[in-house]
Amino acid sequence: MQSDVAPLGKLRGKVLVLGSDTRSFLAVIRSLGRAGLTVHTAWAHPQSLALRSRYISANHQLAEPTADFSEWGSGLVRLFQAENYSLVIPTNDQSIIPLQLNRIELSKSAPLYLVDDEVYEISRDKIRSCELANSLGLPLPKFAVVSSEAELEQVAVTFQFPLVVKPRSSFTEKDLHAKNHVWKARDLASFMARARGALPSGSLLVQEHFSGVGVGVEVLAQAGEVLYAFQHRRLHEPLHGGGSTYRCSEALNAELLEGTRQLVRALNYTGIGMFEFRVNQTSKQWIFVEINSRFWGSLPLAIAAGADFPRFLFEMLVLGRRNFPAEYSIPLFARNLVSDLRYVWSNLTASKSDELLNTTQNVVVLKELFNVVTLRERWDTLTLDDPSPGLAELIWYAKKILLRTKRFVRSCLLSLPPVRRHLQSRIKQRFLAAREVLFVCKGNICRSPFAEQLARSRYSVGFPPAVKFRSAALLSSEGRPSPETALQSAELFGVSLTAHRSVTVTPEMVANAELIFVFDEQNLTELSDQFPDARARIFFLGLLGQGHAIEIADPFGGGAEDFAAAYGKISNLINLLPPR
Q1: What's the per-residue H, E or C state across 484-500?
Q2: How far apart are alpha carbons 336 and 324 in whole angstroms?
Q3: What pLDDT sits at residue 3?
Q4: Residues 106 and 154 in one domain
């Protein structure tokens, strides 16, 4: 059963949904598909589990957005013209940002769902959102905008720790894949160290910490008027913050709804949105947190409860509907099964007295299992009418657990000094005799191209016979540039990735390489399975160093510090290769 409310009539039309994840992207696909609409998708990662949904009629392979609109915009326009969509709905920041920046040109060919430019600018900017809420008199913790070293020091001596530090925006057009994370500082030393490193990237919003649980008021609005509202409460969220993994529907709180209405009116808001608050369950005090002007991660709960926001949005924009049923199922629970299993495991031994950790008492976690027995719980990805994405996710997770087990056993074995010395000797012997060395990682846009360029600059010139360095991806997606954060971080090590474009590993590359370096267990497993005859020539780059850790984590999607850490490790390891 997908919803606890009566089914609505079928709709007609064709929609294009842009995104990739198994949360909002998949939820929108299912909602519109169940409504009877023909659903097309694009800009989804080739391995996205959401693409297994039976509600997708066609998935289009389009060039990813870049700074040059002509490179990808013309392809998108041709698709719009060929398919005559009733509505185009982007569901994540990576699809919203390029459409928002080019909405005038793209809107000539298809009806786009995008919020107004002013709403977009305020909602994505945590500083401007906070200042708007403050001007409306909504409760906020003590806050300050920090743009300089002097302001940083002023906050350090006038604010009470712990602090919550927020970047201006989670994503920017400069790098659609690098997320700027919210973080918490327990003390002065940790705050100053990290804030100084973050300031060069832009102003920071600093707030005193407020103890409470996350509550979202989701709305459908038109011209500043709320047409429909729904409320959920977070039950589980990652210990250090992030999207909820378990949550429940609840009755609308009059104060939170009024605060939401004030924001909607002030913005003259049209579209869907999630207005986030934090509520102290003991004192009942609350604060405004932020505005999410796109479909949110907990959307599957709303849809299951009868708050079918994707369908309602289509009906409002395309059919002109303004009246929607106010009721929804209470309480209904929804769990992102795989993510919540990780949460339960990490929560098991976490300190329940640490106010900066989003913990749940273990006995409460156990009692929540009764929600399954009483049929009050739904799962985000696994549904009866569309089981393939959820089953694929469970299989993927089982494989991941197996991979972690293999990784642990292998790490223990390779940490033994005799084993490590033997493998280092083999690597160095192969390197000295090699005419070609190949670096392979998942996407060939972060780790492997950096290693290739760095090794080439150090070893391939003036050392006869010259060694050829190459890099490649395990993914089949070619022609992708390195993300902006990778470009900036590589420059710090004297490496330019500006001209680099990803290539997929081929049998010829593997056959020609006398030495092949990988960076993590997944790289090793996939490459060895794909080219079993080359297993004797495949090694972790991390084996050249000392210590227990031999893997170099993929920094893709992380911030500058993640790239700097990965590139620093790679640089140190390549320095350990013997001179030729």
Answers
A1: HHHHHHHHCCCCCCCCC
A2: 27
A3: 40
A4: no
Collect all residues with Cβ–Cβ distance below 8 Å to 137 and sequence separation of at least 6. none
Q: What CA–CA distance (Å, rounded) separates 149 from 154?
A: 9
- Residue 526's Cβ-side half-sphere holds a number of Cα atoms within 13 Å equal to 18
Please write the tens of the pLDDT for every residue from 29-45: 999 999 999 999 999 98
Record the tokens describing residue 408, joined without a space. Answer: 């642990």
Considering the domain architecture, whether residues 41 and 186 belong to the same structural domain is answered as: no
3-state secondary structure of 481: coil
> Do 270 and 243 lie in a common domain?
yes
Residues 489-508 have a mean pLDDT of 94
Show which of 154, 185, 208 is a domain's final residue.
208
CATH number at residue 178: 3.30.1490.20
**Is there a domain that residue 63 lies in?**
yes
Residue 89's identity, in one-letter code, is I
Task: Give CA–CA dist 18/88, Å, rounded.
Answer: 8
Torsion of CA 292, 295, 297, 303, to 10 degrees: 130
- Inform me whether the pLDDT recorded for 332 exceeds 50: yes
- Running DSSP on this structure, what letter comes out for residue 333? E
Model pLDDT for residues 229-270, shown as the tens digit of each residue:
999 999 999 988 888 999 999 999 999 999 999 999 999 999
The whole-number pLDDT of residue 557 equals 79
Nearest of 280, 310, 144, 287 to residue 218 by alpha carbon: 310
Give every strand in the sheet of 163-167, ordered side by side: 143-146, 204-208, 163-167, 183-185
Structure pTM? 0.80
Nearest CA among 163, 186, 248 for reference residue 213: 248
- Per residue in 98-125, pLDDT (tens digit) is 999 999 999 999 999 999 999 999 999 9
Establish if 129 belongs to a structural domain. Answer: no
Q: Which CATH number fits the domain that encloses residue 526?
A: 3.40.50.2300
Sheet containing 87-90, strands listed edge to edge, beginning at the edge strand earlier in sequence: 56-60, 38-42, 14-18, 87-90
Q: In this structure, are 568 and 510 located in the same domain?
A: yes
Which residue, 364, 394, 424, sits at the end of a domain?
394
Residue 464 confidence (pLDDT): 53
Number of domains in the chain: 3
37 with 79, same domain: the answer is yes
What's the Rg (C-alpha) of the chain? 25
Q: 8 in a domain, yes or no? A: no
Alpha-carbon distance 25 to 10, whole Å? 21
Q: What confidence tens digit (pLDDT) does each residue in 417-444 have?
A: 899 999 999 999 999 999 999 999 999 9
Instruction: List the domain range (segments joined by +) for residue 290.
Output: 14-123+212-394
